[in-house]
């Protein structure tokens, strides 16, 4: 049909306004919610040993990459993600630091998915001159603030 097509492979996009409580949320939102709901010194549950690794991309960086892709003539599959890979345990540590809370982890049985997953951004840098600007901690800071507000509003309405 001679359609002008773009193919993006998204790698764990997160940020405010996303799912945070319905069971479909990504790990950053789920952990932000758990930390927001837990008092300082409390404990949250994490599936598995927490050593599984992922990279997460803040939504603003994703939108910029999509815009550049749509404006380009590049039509092959391309990764849109971050190369800042962290363990789930490290993600809890980052969220706890942003929340200014001391949070303990209880590791429980649950689905783990792939042991490790990361984005290779060589192609998108070459083709679209794009790279992510938000560090994981910076994106978590914005996301945690929004999710904490949602949690507080939910508590007030109950």
Description:
- The chain is of the alpha/beta class and 158 residues long.
- It is built from five helices and eight strands, in the order ββαβββαββαβαα.
- The chain has helices spanning 27-37, 59-71, 88-99, 122-128, 136-157, and strands at residues 7-10, 13-14, 43-47, 53-55, 57-58, 77-80, 85-87, 104-108.
- Strands 1-6 form a two-stranded parallel ribbon. It has a two-stranded parallel ribbon with strand order 2-5. Strands 3-8 form a two-stranded parallel sheet.
- α1 (27-37) packs across α3 (88-99).
- The longest helix is centred in the last third of the chain and has 22 residues, at 136-157.
Write a concise keyword list for the protein shown above.
elongated, 158 residues, two-stranded parallel sheet, alpha/beta, 18% strand, 5 helices, 41% helix, 8 strands
What does this entry show, briefly?
The protein has 5 helices and 8 strands. 41% of the residues lie in helices and 18% in strands.
* Count of alpha and pi helical runs: 5
Shape: elongated
Helical coverage, percent range: 40-55%
The pLDDT mean sits at 95
Order of helices and strands: EEHEEEHEEHEHH
- Binned strand content: 15-25%
Biggest sheet layout = 2 strands, parallel
Give the uncertain stretches in residue-range form. Answer: none
Instruction: Supply Rg.
Output: 17 Å
Going across the major beta sheet, what is the strand order?
1-6
In whole angstroms, the N-to-C terminal distance is 53 Å
Return the structural class. Answer: alpha/beta
Compute the number of strand runs. 8
């Amino acid at each position: 049909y001679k359609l002008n097509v773009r193919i993006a492979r998204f790698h764990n996009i997160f940020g405010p306004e996303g799912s945070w409580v319905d069971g479909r949320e990504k790990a950053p939102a789920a952990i932000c919610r758990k930390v927001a709901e837990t008092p300082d010194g409390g404990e949250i549950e994490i599936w598995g040993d927490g050593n599984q690794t992922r990279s997460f991309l803040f939504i603003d960086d994703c939108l910029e990459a999509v815009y550049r892709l749509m404006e380009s003539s590049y039509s092959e599959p391309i990764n849109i993600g971050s190369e800042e890979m962290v363990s789930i345990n490290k993600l809890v540590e980052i969220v706890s630091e942003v929340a200014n809370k001391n949070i303990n982890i209880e590791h429980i049985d649950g689905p783990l998915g792939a042991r490790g997953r990361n984005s290779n951004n060589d192609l998108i840098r070459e083709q679209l001159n794009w790279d992510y600007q938000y560090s994981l901690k910076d994106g978590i800071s914005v996301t945690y603030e929004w999710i904490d507000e949602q949690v507080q509003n939910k508590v007030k309405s109950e």
